[in-house]
Design a protein that fits this description.
The protein has 497 residues and is α/β, with parallel strands linked by helices. It has 3 domains: 65 residues, no CATH class; 76 residues, Immunoglobulin-like (Sandwich), CATH 2.60.40; 332 residues, TIM Barrel. Helix content is 20%, strand content 24%. Strands 13, 14, 15, 16, 17, 18, 19, 24 and 25 form a 9-stranded mixed sheet that branches. α5 runs parallel beside α6. The chain is globular.
Length: 497
Amino acid sequence: MRGNPVYLGISGGPSTWSGNAGAYNQLQLSFTTAAGQTSAQLYLHGWYGAGTYYADDVVLDGPGGNTPGTPGTPGTPQTTTVTNNSIGLSWGASAGTVTGYRVYEGSTAVASVTGTTATVGGLAACTTHSYAIAAYNSAGESPKTATTTASTSGCVDTGLPKHALIGYLHASFANGSGYVRMADVPAAWDIIDLAFGEPTSVTSGDIRFTRCSVSECPNVESDADFVAAIKAKQAQGKKVLISIGGQNGQVQLTTAAARDKFVSSVSAIIDKYGLNGLDVDFEGHSLSLNAGDTDFRNPTTPVIVNLISALKSLKAKYGSGFVLTMAPETFFVQVGYQFYGGTSAGDARTGAYLPVIHALRDSLTVLHVQDYNSGPVMGLDNQYHNMGGADFHIAMTDMLKAGFTVANTGQFFTGLRPDQIAIGLPAAVSAGNGYTSPSDVQAAVNCLVKGTGCGSYTLRGGTSPSLRGLMTWSINWDKYYNWEFQNSHEPFLNALP
């Protein structure tokens, strides 16, 4: 290899790296398969956002290959019939002699059949699962297929439209764009996130929501008018949430006491203003993974474990109608495909939202990752994508739907239901880096929803007719720029099938 730093590694196994701007030099490592292991995934990738590297003559020196006589890999599985507690699958037959097929969820075989269809039962309603298929005979088992993701039916009706417009309202500051009274928020907005609730100190867990002062926001309404306007919005079917964190609100729940204070203080805000739920907008250094915390399904880092516990407590307290949304940056989600902080491969924050999303996936209303203020991110096509165009939104959203293998762990992060996914965007050029024109945003949505106009990108997660919609920072900035975001996208979303 040569050029910028390049990693060579085995998923779930060892890795090494080197950087050499001059001539090619050799990069090598050794690995040993575990008992019963018949395949290994080798990867080459660069350092996050560092630029181009060159690699050539990749050689595997060792036994390699399938065990002689084993079947070929089955055809890619497809979802057939779905009920509240079961998912049906079908796939193409394997080449060679086949005794049967095993259906895997992760590393666990959940069904074994002799034909090319199966129904996995005993599932909970409104849950998402990813499956891969392997054929077997007396000689051994074939490599597994690529995974397919499907969800059981029986989801609770959130009261949201099929395609929603979601926006942040500067409720505690003006931020240069001017204050917008709650009563003056147009009816186009289906979820209104009050920005922001912030902690009294980074580790206190004590969240306070202080409305904008008269000195900063001369047109600010009284508390009574604010609450009345919230009730009026809710009567129209809108959801109003408190958003916790933001750029300046670092929240680290390092102790059980901080966790409990978070639950009680957030509950107090929700109850005071009669809100519908909570948006988790943890940025900066709120979430990171301790070294050795490598299983996103069973995290051990206190700030992660305590946040999960706190959110579950709030969901349990307020019931099925509680609206829970999250607005992580790409660094904390999609970058986990390349680097996962707990493996000590780079920044400890990479992928740090994945354990939280996974643990709350069955309670999560909408995940709207911020497709802005981001560096280049590698997609499922193993190419870097840059913010500001349709391609970035297509690739980043496809990762959330299809799921992906978490870097250096060999573990698969199962994708979300399409109705749980929205695209996060800046409303205007002043609102954040990565502004995308309405035409490019709509091109991305048409690709994701209908499979049209995708350019050179192939959707790994398939189309998403029930994609939830668009989120923006912010309603205030949209008003400042004459409502371009709202006026462009509300009729577009309403016209989608």
